[in-house]
Design goal:
There is one protein chain. The protein is of the alpha/beta class and 454 residues long. The chain is built from 15 helices and 16 strands. It has helices at residues 3-32, 57-62, 64-76, 80-91, 166-182, 197-201, 204-209, 215-224, 236-240, 257-271, 292-296, 301-304, 405-412, 419-426, 443-452; strands spanning 41-42, 47-48, 99-102, 125-126, 151-154, 157-160, 188-194, 231-233, 282-289, 308-314, 320-327, 330-337, 361-365, 374-379, 396-401, 430-436. A hairpin with a 2-residue loop joins strand 5 and strand 6 (157-160). It starts with a helix and ends with a helix.
């Protein structure tokens, strides 16, 4: 083959490559201008994406409108999440990593936007008692990692990292003390601090290596600073005795309903209730769940290959509840299922099966109880899997998510959004404060508690 032919072949190849690249750029640009294709929410990041800015004369004059359009375009580009996922998947092939630390934002659960389209429920099954054949002992997951904050990923499981703050933890105790004092003679206040998975499943050596503080010691200190007028539940010890059961969600920061059950049994003597046996409940299972660890790690391939199964335990007395869901600037009342069928929900939303997820205000009337008993649960998302176990023990069960309750009260126009005001209006006798341990040290959360626990 002479030089002219070779030169001609290379020239054609360059033209083909340039043409393909040009076509790719045109297609990418075309997708970007498809207004209707820009998503409004991110399933991976669980947040609302940037909205298209309003056109104003001031925005045109100072150029902020065009800057905001750039931000909107970049944040809502239709292929953005797929490109990010591909990038991190490519990174995962750079080398073999059995452990990984991923810097992540603190938990910030958002209100569920689910519509009340109740589909048919799965046929319940009788739950087996996981106590059978259980071995007691500490977690022994052990590996090396750098001492930085965020999510710790060991093989195919994620763990949240906890950092102790002496000042904030003391403030948390003092706020609950104030609430108990204000409710003295009216209602009994209970405190349950839910440990996150790293404190239960990881060995002391691994926790030290990743900079995760000892949750057991932290919980003991926090509870010791609470007045004796409060009923204090330390679930850490009992959860450590059940590390061989399926109490961990490897792709998500929440606890399982099984872990919530063991904590409910720990709290029962203080509440003077006889806990139900786990075998008495019917269950529903939702497979293929990929939770917040998977999403915040940009769809880590190891976590993606190990999806969770969310198991829910159905109350025996009643399966119905009422909730208020925020839609736009208003809250709408819905009749809901305490355990809702989320089989058709996206992979990242399967945990919303519990107690209508994170709604501002919720209520159950258990008509099989006629003793006037009542309880209010003030909770974050960890309370969702716990609440179904309380339904069989009280005539009236109320629960609020402290992150959204004030907005609900302001909308409803009832004035005082404090827990004391709610207790007085409902004549409630028991108040359970249930938070995961990370929220006991959060400044913004404590500021919310300061307004609520009055």
């Amino acid at each position: 083959m002479n030089k002219e032919k070779i030169k001609k072949i290379f020239g054609v190849q360059r033209l083909v490559k340039a043409g393909l690249f040009g076509a790719f750029i045109i297609i990418i640009a075309f997708i970007g201008i498809l207004w209707f294709a820009h998503p409004k929410t991110s399933e991976v990041e669980k947040r609302e994406l940037t909205k298209f800015p309003k056109l104003t004369i001031a925005g045109l004059w100072d150029g902020s409108f065009f800057s905001d359009v750039d931000t909107w375009y970049a944040d809502t580009y239709p292929l953005r999440e797929g490109l990010i996922s591909s990038y991190h998947s490519l990174q995962s092939h750079y080398g073999i990593r059995s452990t990984q630390i991923i810097a992540a934002q603190p938990e910030e659960d958002v209100e569920s936007e689910d519509t009340p389209d109740v589909t048919g429920q799965d046929e319940p099954q009788t739950a087996a008692d996981p106590d059978e054949g259980l071995e007691e002992g500490r977690g022994d997951i052990d590996a090396q990692a750098e001492p930085v904050g965020g999510i710790y990923i060991a093989k195919d499981s994620g763990y949240g990292i906890y950092s102790y703050s002496a000042n904030n933890s003391l403030r948390y105790s003092q706020l609950l003390n104030r609430l108990a004092s204000n409710l003295s003679g009216k209602a009994k206040v209970y405190s349950l601090i839910a440990p996150i998975s790293a404190g239960i499943m990881l060995s002391d050596k691994t926790r030290d290596s990743i900079g995760c503080d000892d949750q057991n010691s932290a919980i003991e200190i926090i509870l010791s600073n609470m007045d004796d007028s409060l009923a204090k539940v330390n679930a850490h010890h009992t959860l450590q005795r059940h590390t061989t059961a399926y109490t961990l969600l490897p792709t998500d920061h929440h606890w399982t309903a099984l872990r919530a059950y063991y904590s409910y049994r720990e709290a029962s003597p203080l509440q003077c209730i006889e806990p139900e046996e786990l075998s008495s409940y019917q269950t529903m299972e939702f497979k293929g769940f990929l939770g917040t660890f998977y999403q915040q790690s940009h769809r880590n391939p190891a976590l993606g290959a190990n999806p969770d199964t969310v198991t829910a335990y159905i109350p025996n007395d009643t399966k119905e509840m009422t909730c208020y869901m925020k839609q736009g600037d208003i809250f709408k009342e819905y009749n809901w299922k305490i355990i809702y069928d989320v089989s058709n929900y996206p992979q990242g939303e399967k945990y919303n099966c519990f107690a209508a997820s994170d709604q501002a205000y919720n209520y159950v009337h258990n008509e099989k109880k006629t003793d006037g008993s009542s309880i209010l649960v003030v909770k974050d998302s960890y309370g969702n899997a716990f609440i179904p176990f309380l339904v069989d023990h009280y005539e009236h069960i109320y629960w609020i998510d402290y992150r959204y309750y004030t907005a609900f009260v302001n909308w409803k126009g009832t004035g005082d959004s404090s827990v004391s005001a709610l207790v007085n209006r409902g004549g409630i006798k028991d108040v359970l404060i249930l938070n995961n341990i990370n929220f006991t040290g959060s400044n913004s959360t404590l500021n919310t508690f300061d307004r609520l626990y009055r």
